[in-house]
Amino acid sequence: MTAPEGFSETRLVDPFEVFMGPVYERIEDGGRRFALLVDGRHVNGRGILHGGMLMTFADCVLGAKAWDLTNNSACVTLNMQSQFLKPAVAGDLVEVRPELVRRTRALLFLRGDFTVKGETVFTASSVWKLLGKD
Amino acid sequence: MSAHPALPPGAVEGPASGFNRHVGPIYNLPDAEDGALKRFAFAVAEKHMNAAGSVHGGMLMGFMDVAMSRSARAVSGAPRCSTVSLSCDFAGPGRLGDLIEAQVRVVRATRTMVFLVGELRAGGRVLLTANGLWKIAGMKAGT
User: Fold this and answer.
1) Burial environment of residue A45 by CB neighbours within 10 A (0 to 12, 13 to 18, 19 or more)
2) Is B28:B54 a contact under the CB 8 Å cutoff?
3) In Å, how far is B38's CA from the nearest CA of chain A?
4) Of residues B49, B76, B88, B65, the one with CA closest to residue B14
5) Chain B contact for A14, CB < 8 A?
6) Residue of chain A nearest B81, judged by CA positions
7) Residue A41 contacts B, CB cutoff 8 Å
């Protein structure tokens, strides 16, 4: 699969992400912007991007943001809240630039607005625990 | 694909295309509590894992999304429905070989919306708890 113009393929390590990917990225203002090119493995019976795939993409890229912020520390998702605003379909490029909302010693609060052609289709907020920190 | 040895009697693979087919099989289990508790299952395989040896959070949330969608359609009779919001808490890790069961309850169903709660369990362990809000569509006017 060829990367969309301006993007390169993200290195994925989790077997499930490799199985569902690829995911693409480019550097923007010092952080990573990620993209998913929706294909037939990502949609439901009506050809609409599956909620499970959006949440998988979100967990993947918010996790990548957590890694970038912590020098690749081990961390786990505690919670994720997802809102589905508008359907996306096969062939769409879903883009997101994950944001840090707040960081404490043990927790990261992250969020992302996921867009297709500049229009937000999905938002996710997640809380991450840095393992070994009280 | 051979069925998981721990699959309970009455397990039937649900409709599978696209995402569901790729990550599945995802089974429908018989309802419990006189239909109040909707049940679903999938068996954890290598493809579902993260690098830390746990089931990937995306797979757990995706499975809950499928379970709640099927539950929302079952209670409403609507041909189509879509996720509006879903909140998931990750209470514990899923492991390779686990048979993970989703248990979903409908809190309230209106003409256009369904409110659901659910959890994922493996054996006696709770892996995930969730609240979901679904929009149902395709109902005939007046029904």
Assistant:
1) middle
2) no
3) 19
4) B65
5) yes
6) A46
7) yes
Q: Do A56 and B50 touch (CB under 8 A)?
A: no
pTM above 0.90, yes or no: yes
ipTM: 0.94
**pLDDT, tens only, A71-108:** 888 889 999 999 999 999 999 999 999 999 999 999 99
Q: How far apart are CA B31 and CA B72, in angstroms?
A: 14
What is the length of chain B?
143
Tokens 């707040």: give the residue.
Answer: A102
Question: Is A46 an interface residue toward B (CB < 8 Å)?
Answer: yes
Q: B137 and chain A: CB distance < 8 Å anywhere?
A: no
Q: How far is A44 from chain B (nearest CA, A)?
A: 6
Omega cis (within 30) before B79: no
CA distance A43 to B81: 14
Structure tokens at B95: 């492991």
Measure the CA–CA gap between A16 and B6, rounded to whole angstroms. 23
